[in-house]
Amino acid sequence: MNLATLTSKKSLVPAVLVLLVILLATVPLYASLGTITLLISFLMYIILAVSWAMFSGPTGYISLASAAFFGIGVYTPALLYAEGAPLLPLPVVIIIAGLVALCCALVIGAATLRLRGIFFTMFTFGLIGASTPIIQYFEFETHGARGRYIQSMGIDNVYYLMLITFVAVMAIVYLLRRSRYGLALQGIGQNEEAAAHMGVDTTRMKVITFGISGIFMGITGAIMALSWKYVDPSTAFNLNYSFLPLLMALVGGMGQLYGPVIGALGFAYLRYTLLSNAARYYMLIFGIIMIVFILFLPGGLASLIEKGRNRLREVIARLVKGGEAGQHANT
Amino acid sequence: MRILEGQDVTKHFGGLTAVSHVDFFIDQGEILGLIGPNGAGKTTLFNLISAAFPISSGEIRFKGQKLNGLKPHQICKMGIARTFQQTKIFPDMPVLQNVLVGAFFGKRKRVSGADAAKEASQALELVGLSAMSAIPTRDLTLVNQKRTELARALATKPELLLLDELMAGLNPTEVSEAMELVKRIRDRGITVFMVEHVMKAIMGISGRIVVLHHGEKIAEGTCDEISCNKQVIDIYLGEEAHAGG
What angle do CA A39, A41, A42 make, to 5 degrees? Predict the structure, then answer.
């Protein structure tokens, strides 16, 4: 076996991925409750970062609406599973959460995606700012309390639902990136006017992609709600669910499919470590890392990895060439 | 047959009338030139045809079909493609991907991936960029970025091509190459409507010429008629013609 086949990703990558998913699927059989809870939060951040990057990465429309779709997802089981016995099967509730988030994303997208650049970002920011007090108001008026209790669904169920959603979002982003629609989204990001004049229905393309990314954020919110047992508007519509996925995707790098994944993993792990060991400095260290990345590595971790891989390929190519030359010399 | 026809085409920007009551037509298979001093409304007229802006009044018909109220992507799918005065490429994509966008989305029918790839490479070959298809478009020279735009427009399989100052910023050799290219495109059955400042180029290949000045059409005719038109010489060709004469 030579070095070139070892590094060729065609045969290796799918095998590793399947193995990884199998490994993740067996975790509840032996892992502790703490590990599973940790993995759930890692998966949550990965899904949020990947679905944020699905739309905002290629198009360059920076959305801060993630927390709104996440919160809508959180509130779907909170309303459907309120105190009494479950009325609907679990998967149905999750799908409803996704659909509600989709509808909201389509309406918001259709209304706001005509705005360019900072105006779109500001609008989506205002959206979360407005949703918390509005939900709070309605909860007090109709329900008489600040939050709601949700029946627990068992941590294993939550974990598996999150894993399935993770696999689904990765598959969709993979297909999207390879498809003509992925190309059109990039076109929109690089020169929207030109894309429109080349036959791309830019508005429709943006709204639909925004909607799909909203589905996954809603579903993730619904699954998380099942593990929380109690939700209130300020946890469901927390601004962190808008900013963290964005930062994770930026730090990971959006040029590659795995960029937001490693960004989310790294950040989620860092967040966990800092919160449990140095909670006072958590935000400070977070901020410094952010600044360093934006200044020195705008392509994110993924660009660093790609650079390293290209370098490795060059070195191997040189070695192989050298080897051949050596053989010729011997004959 | 008239492929494109404009009647009383007018565009206001606030109080400014950029294009004022212009009538024009293009016959199928011809090369029509559009000239006029800076600010005459040439690019605005292109933007009205390709629906970048809505028209204020009047109407434009393509093969008898009214274009008013359509969106840019619909215009493209009908068979009108364009390039831009200030090149609007997709800078971070390789050249081939730029052209693929046109090949995939520019037509009314859905094209397969294989067909799109074939059409894109044919378009690249026509403009002479086959060898550069894998290079990021931002790294190309201006002339090659313009060729990329042209290939991208051609990949949409247009019947009418709007060229907005294709030759601007090109050196004399590149200009004559571009002239040959435009003729070759016309010979493939594509009607060409071109804005140009390079007089040698436009006089050399256009069948007819329309002259705009302050948004109004002041003359229309063959190259000979235009270059002898007193009004055109006064306001536009003026200095050069006198210097030459």
Answer: 60
- The 10s digit of each residue's pLDDT in B83-109 is 999 999 999 999 999 999 999 999 999
Token pair listed for B179: 């002239």
Q: Which amino acid is located at A17 in the chain?
A: L
Residue A321's φ and ψ, nearest 5 degrees, are: -60, -50
Tell me the C-alpha distance between A181 and A316, whole Å. 35
CB proximity list for A117: less than 8 A, separation 6 or greater: none
Give the gap in angstroms from C-alpha B220 to the nearest C-alpha of chain A: 28
**Parallel, antiparallel, or unpaired: how do β-strands B160-164 and B191-195 relate?**
parallel
Considering the four listed CATH numbers 3.30.470.20, 3.40.50.300, 3.40.50.2000, 3.40.50.150, the one that applies to the domain covering B2-79+158-244 is: 3.40.50.300
* Alpha-carbon Rg for chain B in angstroms: 18
Q: Does A184 touch chain B (CB under 8 A)?
A: yes
Opening angle at CA A300, ends A299 and A306, nearest 5: 75
Flag if B97 and A183 touch (Cβ within 8 Å): yes
Are B76 and A202 inside 8 Å of each other by CB?
Answer: no
Rounded Cα gap, residues B94 and B195, in angstroms: 27
Cβ pairs bridging A and B (under 8 Å):
76
Chain A residues with beta carbon closer than 8 angstroms to that of B72: 193, 196-197
Query: What are the structural domain ranges in chain B?
Result: 2-79+158-244, 89-157
DSSP at B83: -
Find the residue in B nearest to A184 (Cα). Answer: B101
Residue of B nearest to A185 (CA): B101
A175-227 pLDDT, tens per residue? 999 999 999 999 999 999 999 999 999 999 999 999 999 999 999 999 999 88
Interface confidence, given as ipTM, is 0.92
Question: Which residues of chain B does A178 touch, with a Cβ-Cβ cutoff of 8 Å?
Answer: none
Q: Which residues of A are less than 8 Å from B92 in CB distance?
A: 186, 190
User: What pTM did the predictor assign?
Assistant: 0.89
Pairing state of beta strands B191-195 and B31-35? Answer: parallel
Closest CA to A65 of A129, A143, A117: A129
